[in-house]
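User: I'm putting together a teaching handout on how multi-component assemblies are represented. Below are the sequence lines for each component of a complex, exactly as they appear in our records. Could you produce the 3D structure of the whole assembly as structure tokens, so the students can see both representations side by side? Please keep the chain order the same as the input.
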Amino acid sequence: MNEEVMCDTTLALGIGVGMQRERQSKQHKRGVWLNLSLPLHPKIEASDDHDHDYHNDNDDQDSNFSSKTIDDHEEQEERGIKRSASNTDVYNNNSDGSRKKLKLTTEQTTSLENSFKINSTLNTGQKHELAKKLNLLPRQIEVWFQNRRARTKLKQIEQECALLKKCCETLNEENRRLKKELQEVRCYSIKFDQPPYPPLPFYIRYATTAEMLHPCDQDTKTVILPNGGSIAQSHAPVKLS
DNA sequence: CTCCCGTGTACAGTTACGTCA
DNA sequence: CTTGACGTAACTGTACACGGG
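Assistant: Of course. Below is the structure of the complete assembly, with chains in the same order as your input.
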């Protein structure tokens, strides 16, 4: 990879920019049902108000008798199945109320990874389908994809940081080389009292960097030296700092 | 048409559990 | 056996889009 490619500005612009959000249109009309079920999560039970065993972000205002969507209802039912199931019963917490962490099986992880490769976001239908297939809750699928996207983004940022660091090192090296080259040219010009030879690259002859060169009066046709002296100059007149 | 509300989902950040050196 | 680091499932808070009243 050459330096130009490495320093492509699109790289820098990409940093910190999140993925484009694609809102999914609602798949179906949502029914309403009366939630009379008992909370299952010990933590929630303690709070004595909400039903979010696995939480719904917007449940906060809901009462015990709040309306719920069909999606939630389906998940409640699936949870009921899960509670009678064995290895995926993550919501049966420890007796002391501590969180029990699910360990996904190899098959589940592989399947989730494959789905992620195809599409990093899932619509409601895909989510439920995958949940059914893997014997997990739709919420767990959702969480897994959220975490997976976060991991992907983090890894991408790390890679871009490494690339930028490398690019920075390359530029510093180039900067040192150019400074050295400029110094040599200055020495040559002063020593032989004549214009730089071989000719300076355009980016040095016409550089505007204060550190390097300053434009001065065109008519003088001289280069003003740092010590106050001057030399003849056939190129654009400059003042050496 | 506009406003408000409920709902669903995304993301960033955090917490906490399980594993391993 | 203990401990700290690490990976990651799960959670919290917030923002936004969308549809319906």
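A couple of points students might notice: Residues 21, 23-26, 29, 52, 54-55, 57, 60, 90, 99, 101-104, 139-140, 143-144, 146-147, 151 of chain A lie near DNA strand C (CB under 10 Å from a C1'). Chain A has two domains: 3-13+29-156, 195-241.
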